[in-house]
Write a structure and sequence with these properties.
There is one protein chain. This protein has 255 residues and is mostly helical. It has one domain. Helix content is 80%, strand content 0%. The chain has 11 helices and no strands. The protein is rod-shaped. One of its GO terms (biological process) is protein import.
Length: 255
């Protein structure tokens, strides 16, 4: 009973030097940062479940402006809304500048829209992956930070035991056990960070695949006036010239 009353977290903190306390503070900061990122991204993923409904509402809209309004209402500030607006803005830009005697007048509308959609996807990917580097760094370094605290704590405990001249088991086990707590702290910080990183990365891959599919359908609609998914299989072999409509005309007709 006396052993349990003497040794523990309070005793470890009381006898710890500045380095051990610094390691403990770093682990606390890592833990707070990882849990903050995990909770924030979890809330975002929960809201992202409405994106499928927003995309379906966009395609069922009677015109382009109403579709964009539905995206803004159902999925505000989402990658899907940004992608749709970027694509429409690219088509409108081409339609306004292709008749001028400038370098823009020689731009290919399809290529310009493709690059605009790719830029939007790249920006959305960067936003989705923000914070993952921090989680990966915490998950990979926290165990070693805790291990460093353990090694230094054991060294500090052995020095004190050597100075006191008491090297019995009851005098060694307490300080060494306290030092090993730092390793447990490191694992306590690292495990949630690794699990959160894996879960967020998987959710990002799913969302980016859906965004890529939406971009493919949107590009087809802006280029031909119809979704590729809505095209019958028998029309796939028809010459492109028979069905292709300029992107400017498709958007202007929808407007």
């Amino acid at each position: 009973m006396e052993m349990h009353e003497t040794f523990g977290l309070a005793h470890l903190w009381a006898q710890a030097d500045l380095l051990i306390r610094g390691v403990a503070f770093v682990l606390v900061v890592m833990s707070v940062a990882s849990w903050y990122l995990i909770l924030v991204r979890s809330v975002r993923q929960f809201r992202a479940r409405r994106h499928d409904r927003a995309v379906e509402a966009f395609w069922s809209a009677p015109n382009l402006q109403d579709g964009l309004a539905r995206l803004s209402r159902l999925a505000p500030d989402s990658p899907f809304e940004a992608l749709a607006r970027q694509g429409v803005a690219a088509v409108e830009h081409v339609s306004q500048h292709t008749h001028r005697q400038t370098l823009g007048g020689t731009l290919d509308a399809d290529e310009f829209v493709t690059r605009a959609l790719r830029k939007s996807i790249a920006l959305s990917t960067a936003r989705l992956e923000s914070g993952l580097t921090v989680l990966a760094s915490i998950g990979s370094t926290a165990p070693f930070v805790g291990l460093f605290g353990t090694v230094w704590g054991i060294y500090h405990a052995l020095v004190n035991i050597s100075a006191s001249g008491l090297a019995t088991l009851d005098k060694v086990a307490g300080p060494v056990g306290e030092a090993l707590i730092m390793t447990a702290f490191g694992l306590f910080v690292a495990i949630p960070a690794v699990l959160g990183y894996n879960a967020i990365s998987r959710a990002n891959r799913v969302e980016l695949s859906e965004l890529d599919a939406f971009a493919h359908d949107l590009h087809s609609w802006l280029s031909t006036g119809a979704r590729l998914a809505d095209q019958p299989a028998t029309t796939a072999a028809r010459p492109q010239a028979a069905t292709a409509v300029p992107a400017q005309a498709a958007v202007q007709g929808a407007l």
